[in-house]
Specification:
Helix content: 25-40%
Distance between the termini: 44 Å
Oligomer: single chain
Shape: globular
Structural class: alpha/beta
Strand content: 15-25%
Radius of gyration: 21 Å
Strand order of the largest sheet: 1-14-13-17-15-16
Number of strands: 17
Low-confidence stretches: 1-5
Mean pLDDT: 94
Largest sheet: 6 strands, mixed
């Protein structure tokens, strides 16, 4: 009964593989010589630069302004001098204008304007979230203040904090729950007040018993917020699957969580919301898990946004003990393969994984013909037919794709993971979504 109540249909059990970092406390790293701050660290319109070459900036200073309804401000994560604005490739394959700041190592910061939840209205909280440049920190990087705009139809009755962290290796949210639980709870309370939601739920996979017990203990006297353990299953942390698991509600096809009265946000985003509102310091740093068999010192590191991965590996992770054969930004299921470490940490960067050749060799299989086993269909959490979509892509039959709901794919990678023929099904789904969008 427990499994059925708090889980979802489809998905797959995968090994957590978090032992390298789950017991490592968050460590603040030495500031880098320079940071590279993209103007597209969020979903939506790129921010507009407010500085130019040779300008001196302070830590926390707004250096790029949000443009349009869905966008986010960008703030300097160190104090120093702007050396230029140039285009750089980001891990997701996007080329973005980036503001480069050379560190002066004085750590001069803007004057803070701390606030308290008791003195703020919902509108004021949304205004602060926008001003501080808050975005989702679980990977999608959706501007946080936009989530909490009053829905045109209906109302929000439940805020779900996503503490599932079902991708292997990553322990960013887990350590945040253990080390900053009060800020996580207060962040949820800010979100509830911003949306006028009477109920809050903190969803955590049952393979994180310490976090579950700690938050339950802290919430004993709070009747409006409860902790809900969920069975370890991938992709439990996906928005629609999590809503189904903890509320039983089904978000309509191509719909939003708000359509069923729910907003889902990330554990780290809640913590950052509380921290920014209560300190007056915008979103300028985040925790990144660095793990994998090639890393000398795996850990969870608090780093300024815009820090190059090369700096984190060299200074905090103590370099490599084995040559890395594969480098991934994010998790192994949904992350992006990198050719080097010369990429910056963005607002959605939660992990860097580096594996030696022995760790990756078993995964490098050439694709063979589909054996029609149906595993991809059985395990797809969105109830799609990946092999049929692949077949129509190969036939260039775009019209036939329209009836298969390919646009609903969340690109979780489950279909490719269970495929015995090692077909890169996710790539076919991504291509299908692109072709349908173009049509």
């Amino acid at each position: 009964m427990f499994f059925k109540k708090h889980s979802f249909d489809g998905g797959v059990k995968i090994a957590a593989l978090k032992s390298l970092t789950e017991n490592k406390e968050i460590t603040k790293i030495a500031a880098p010589d320079l940071v590279v701050l993209p103007l597209t660290m969020h979903i939506g319109a790129p921010a507009k630069a407010l500085v130019q070459k040779s300008d001196r900036v302070l830590r926390g200073q707004k250096i790029a302004a949000a443009q349009g309804m869905v966008s986010a401000n960008v703030h300097a994560s160190i104090s120093g001098t702007v050396t230029g604005i140039e285009k750089r490739w980001l891990p997701n394959g996007v080329k973005s204008d980036c503001i480069i700041i050379k560190n002066d190592f004085t750590d001069c910061a803007i004057s803070a304007d701390p606030q308290s939840i008791n003195n703020l209205t919902g509108d004021e909280i949304r205004h602060l979230l926008a001003g501080y440049g808050l975005t989702g920190m679980g990977g999608a990087s959706f501007p946080t203040h936009v989530k909490y705009l009053p829905p045109k139809n209906g109302s929000i009755d439940t805020i779900i904090l996503n503490g599932i962290e079902c991708e292997p290796y990553i322990t960013t949210d887990y350590r945040t729950m253990l080390e900053n639980p009060q800020e996580v709870i207060r962040g949820l309370q800010y979100f509830m007040k911003a949306s006028d939601a009477p109920q809050g739920i903190i969803a955590i996979e049952d393979n994180k018993p310490q976090a579950i017990e700690l938050l339950k203990k802290l919430l004993t006297a709070n009747a409006n917020i409860r902790v809900m353990p969920c069975p370890g299953k991938y992709p439990q942390g996906s928005e629609k699957q999590l809503i189904k698991a903890v509320t039983g509600r089904i978000v309509p096809d191509r719909g939003l969580p708000a359509n069923v009265g729910v907003i889902v946000d990330n554990i780290s985003t809640a913590m950052q919301a509380a921290r920014s509102i209560e300190s007056g310091m915008p979103f300028v740093d985040r925790v990144v898990t660095v793990s994998g068999s090639a890393v000398a010192n795996p850990g969870n590191f608090l780093v300024p946004l815009g820090t190059l991965y090369s700096h984190i590996v060299q200074t905090a992770a103590h370099g490599f003990i084995k040559p890395p054969a594969q480098i991934i930004c994010g998790g192994p299921m949904m992350g992006f393969a990198l050719q080097s470490l010369d990429y910056p940490v963005t607002k959605g960067s939660n992990a860097l994984l580096c594996f030696d050749k022995d760790q990756t060799a078993s995964e490098l299989h050439p694709a063979s013909p589909c054996v029609r086993c149906g595993k991809c269909v059985d395990h797809c959490p969105m109830f799609l037919e990946p092999t049929e979509i692949m077949r129509y892509i190969r036939q260039n039959n775009i019209s036939a794709l329209q009836g298969l709901s390919a646009y609903s794919c969340i690109e979780c990678g489950t279909c490719a993971y269970v495929c015995p023929a090692h077909i890169p099904l996710v790539q076919y789904l991504r291509l299908a979504k692109q072709l349908l969008a173009e049509r």
